[in-house]
Records
---
Amino acid sequence: MKSLEIKGTLRKELGKKETKKLRKENMVPCVMYGGENNVHFYAHENLFKDLVYTPKVFLVDLNLDGDKYVAILKEIQFHPVTDKIIHIDFIQIFDDKPATVKIPIELTGSSIGLKNGGKLRQRRRTLKVKGLVADLPDTLNIDISDVNIGDMVKVGDVKFKNLEILDPSRSMVVGVVSSRLAAKGMGAEEEGAEEVAAEAGAEETTEEAKEE
């Protein structure tokens, strides 16, 4: 997995007053969890653009007053009006301990269903996986060459070396629907219920509701 370096400054003072002051200076307050102690720091908002405004996932090399850590992005908070970044949480990771990361999916191959006039329906753009840092790829490649009209690929259908997939196994990743159903505005899950497997489609809908 690719890395991105961010240089920050350790916070000497905490509290709402200090946090408000940092934000006025276009600094982003951050917290890194996962180590022996939580680490509070800040960095200029411009340093996070390549990390936040991209579908890519990075290992973050944090340089905080000369102390170096490796972390992954956990959560971002945006201002409800301006959409400026107001807070970021990181998780510290270690070479010898598995990390949990959402990694983007990349579809490969030329689907039979698409060649036959079907329409692609992708329900998931990422998968949550668990593995050692050395085994985390930039993308999770899923071959859809054999996916015909009415077929779908579920989470349980895909495997990746040295990675454990944490998403529900029956949840759909991608499918191909007929042009007729696509014209009616129906997604792959509806086609799955109507043409592929009604029972599986119902279970998937239930699991998705539980996730949300």
---
Amino acid sequence: MTTIKGIVVLALALAPMLSAADTVYKYQRPDGKVVYSDVPLRGAKLIGRFELVPLPPPQGGVRRDRSRQSEDLAGDRAEQRARALDAADAEIKAAEQALKDAEERQQAGVEPLPGERLGNVGARSSRLGPQYFERQQALAAEVAAARARLDRAYRMRNELRE
């Protein structure tokens, strides 16, 4: 009985050392597939053997807490920057759509509306009235405002990228 107890004690004493460094085996099966295992496999060709050593425990708890806090702060900043860039991209898309819509309205507004033509006395022709030109100026101003919005959106995104 004492021999068995001695073997058990020896096994328990050596167990932490054996588990400290794990071994990973890389095998190639007969069908050509590569397999990684923590136990040897029969009928497979051993390609490699890797010893995994655990990382040492971190030292200096206060320093780790400070570094973790700085990492968290950096992560928060990165998230805020990513959200700001997403918002800038969304604003660019909205501004592009607004510019496209304004340009389409300007193109559609080229033809005079009823009441915007004035007839000439004694002639078979007519001329465009001031309402037509006011409407054209308003449409052009709308396009210019949409372009300015798009330019601001691009500037904002470029500033965030720097």
---
Amino acid sequence: MRKLIAYCGLDCETCDAYLATMHDDQPLREKTAKLWAELNHAPILPEHIICEGCRMDGRKTVYCESLCEIRQCAMKKGLATCGGCPSLEQCPAVGAILAHDPGALKNLRE
């Protein structure tokens, strides 16, 4: 499995926070902060858009670092990703991700 697949199966390499960080792209950081703030009804600022990958050592967005229940659960269970969890099919948290991005399930199965 590629290292830049998040615990939930999303591909970090296509995430705008990851891309903005890797390319030091301030306009993308600003665009992403605005979108995420609107989607989450939260005060997300451009300086919050810093991430080097969900399962990688290094910087992460505040949400990914400490608020993402999926990441916290997988780490607590000692799983490389949710793909190794016997409750994957019944998990409402991961189910929400998979409903919006069917490619995430494929990533978890690989």
